[in-house]
Amino acid sequence: MPISRPTDVTATLDALAASPDADLLAGGTDLVVEVNLDRRRPEHVIALRRVTELAGHDTTDGRLRLGANVTYSEVEHDLAQLVPGLAMAARTVGSPQIRNAGTLGGNLGTASPAGDTLPWLLAMDAEVELASPEGDRSVPLANFLTGPKSTARRPAELITGVRLPRVEGPQHVSKIGPRNAMVISVACFAIVLDTTNRRVRTGMGAVGPTVLRSPDAERAVTQALDWDALTCPEDAIDAFGRACAEATAPITDHRSSAEYRRHAVGVLARRALRRCLST
Amino acid sequence: MTTRSVGAPVARSEDPRLLRGEGRYLDDLGHDAFQIAMVRSPHAHARVLDIDVSGALEVEGLIAIHTFEDLPPRLQEPLPLLLPHPSLTAGRTQHLLADGEVNHVGEAVVMVTATDRYAAEDAAERILVEYDPLPAVVGPERARAAEHAVHDDVPDNVAAHLEQSIGDAPAAIGAAPNRLRFRLDIERSASTPMEGRGTYARWDGDDERVRLHTSTQAPTSVRAAVAAFLGLQLAQVECIAPDIGGGFGVKIMHPWPEEILVPWAARELGHDVKFTEDRREHFVSANHERAQVHWIDVGFDDDGRVLGLDVEFIHDHGAYIPYGLIVPIITSTQLIGPYKLENYRVVFDSVYTNTTPVSPYRGAGRPQGCFAMERTIDRIAAHLGKDRTEVRSVNFLQPEEMPYDFGLTFQDGRPLRYDSGDFPASLEKLKQLVDWDGFEERRAAAEAEGRLLGIGLATYVEGTGVGPYEGGHVLIEPGGTVQVSTGLSTQGQGHQTVFAQIVADELGVDLADVRVVTGDTRRFPYAVGTFASRAAVMSGNAIHLAARRVREKALRIASEALEVDAEDLELADGQARVVGSPDTAIDLKVVATLSNPLRYAFDESARIATQFANPGKEGQPPVTDDDEPGLEATDYYSPMSSTFANGMHAVEVSVDPDTSDIEVVRYAVVHDCGPLLNPRIVQGQVLGGVAQGVGGALYERMAYDEHGQLQNASFMDFLMPYATEVPSVDIDHLETPSPLNPLGIKGAGEAGVIPGAAAIAAAIEDATGVVIDAMPISPSQLHEQRLTTAQDRPGDTT
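YS: structure for the whole thing
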């Protein structure tokens, strides 16, 4: 099995053009598991770790760009001030070893409905940067994720990073899994009280075919919030939890029943909102 | 002065080596061996129509491919039924490679041997097996419904039906003032040791001998099986258990098909051959345990005294039953726990399903039995509105009734006869340890914080140290080192440390001078195995007896050499010396040298034992009629019946009222295994068991779908508890000695795991008011049960 190890985006795109079915390897925390479980037998692997343009982050015009090769560990340790909600999400991923290996680009590329960074990125209206021989484009995350483990990425395209607005305000990410650590999410919830634009942003994981948001719930709670005091009436908090739960389309599997996923994300929504409010 | 080490918390001598990565596990051996990869069935039930190996033949490094047809006649016979029983009337065991039919996912179909594992797997992948899928039988109830059969010649899927009884339970229940009937379920789980199975064989064609290293709990029995299948004399087979990365029961199953196929292939190919199981294989091809459904019918008086108990259960033993009825028999007999049941009837069916076969996993039928009995006692308490400890107290066997014979037959074919224990004292200790009477205050405080707090307890009695026997050999070398061996193997229990403690005390030598070897048939060929919490009781006592013989011989030789009465001598500090006059002494290594009359002075110390230096007793040959050369002895311990350890656990759980998340916040254990040989090691055993009990109660399950596919065959989804899930545990010991053995000890290996599911279920029930009748339980399941309970009881809210 051939392995390409390009060091820049151009060479990566050349390799991808030469073998469009190649598996892209970043941290390997998804791909290697699939190989170990015999679910995938790669014919060709393109290893991305050496591609320098995919590393690091920068801020321009109030927008933040995170490179596809940024690991959960980097988010957790180096970017906690810049993207606190994403850092919370990163801390729920696997073990330290997994967090040292796994990347944002990998989480986006795998596009699992339980992908741990995706709810927060969705709440932030993140856009996925894609490079290809035809030129670069960026796709809103909501459009990029087209179903369970499927994306709008074209065969010749490479995820180079993710862009998002910089906003002020409290944020929170929490996750329920069948064990306290190192588990695949049963329900995940991300919330940002965007005080810059005075709107509540949310994202929900593992409760639908892709990560989801509830525009109705967001709209209602945005109106109910006292943005100066950062308080919210109890009935509006309850309604927010209910509206979020109603917007889900979960499945039943060996990790949880659909009913519990729906219920749990509603609980997470209420709790996450409360954490962001002044008490 | 040598200090007594038995009873002291001596640090484990094996740990520095293992912690530094210097252990020699199976896959650390045989680097140049050919390696095996198995083609395993992807179907739970299918006929094998065709096997096409042509695509694999070009794989570089391929050595051999074997299917069932390629095996010699003896290897086409099914595995032995290890534990026959009169009730096991339809016992079926697997073939080494599938003979035209597969009965569970993971069953071996084709064996591929190659120069390395990569090549073997590449070749295995290119072998095309054509299957005709058959309907899969999954779950104990579908098995008994017998809509489809696992084995054509067992149409009802029932391998065995066994009934045992004391008194007349149906009559006693009928006459009782109170009666309850309900059902209790325990799901399938598995041992899942860190190291899976593995076997490495080396055939020496010049000597015509095979040396087998295998990751087993029963090396002497594997040796016997290999000799039988390969047509070898026992003297041609050596079997060694190297360092083992955990067993927890699954490695008592033997021989695995690979334990026969690997040495056979080594002989056929004239080359070392190795099989190392990977994790995914382990999930589907190494045995499981636990799945049982129980129906309880109990009659009791107004004090909660059980007047009659009638239990029926179905035991799911998977696709084959090589290990016999051990697990359901243990459930049947150990269900009784610390209670004096005078009218008890238990009936079980052991049924075939198209799932991985079953053999004991730490606890071995006891967690299920404990769950059945302790949930029953809790139901009685709830029905009568009594404190759960009170109902237990009125049912306890009393210490003055020991030994107590129930009139049932235990798993060793001998009477179920409790030898020791003081259950009222244990319960009192537990109540103190967990502050049982102060719980309602803690519950109220938690409620004020919005948490649901509950407490539960569970008790058990565990038959340990089952026979028939173990042996021990102790030898003092002329260099002063004490060599100890016993035949059973070790999987991390600290045997090297504990057995050395026993010998060091008996011989008055330093612990560091004692070397212990376990599980090597070259050193000790007679043994039964490591299971049923028996190693300390069986081998510990055998080694103790052997060391005592060596002590007697040492004292005799020393008394002759020092010309003092043996009665006046003691062994201490590596010497035999006169009590009260330690200057009159002789080193044990000199005694060892003197024990062996020599012709040749090959070194300075040997000179004292040569024929002119030591002419021996006048008128006697150099070795007298009743003597043997060497300062060594072998002895065996074989008990009349098992020794019965016991314990009680109390648990507090906190349940999140919104998410139904369950957290174990407090865990207390009172444990009685008799005198502690090494409190540190016993504590480690109990803690490890509690962790496994928490896993079994809240996380670990084998999630089969209706087609017999295991949905969670990886550590991503088969969840073991981490440090984040295991509470700190308060442990107290009661030490009621067993009258059955010289050391007075009872087994401790499985104790910690047994009452976990029962106690945690009780605590969840206490916290939520939801009746918990099936374990393990997840937050998702508890949530749904709370909703159902709330619907059944309008007015309540959750």
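YS: worth flagging: Chain A touches chain B through 26 residues (CB under 8 Å).
IM: good catch. Also The two ends of chain A are 58 Å apart (CA to CA).
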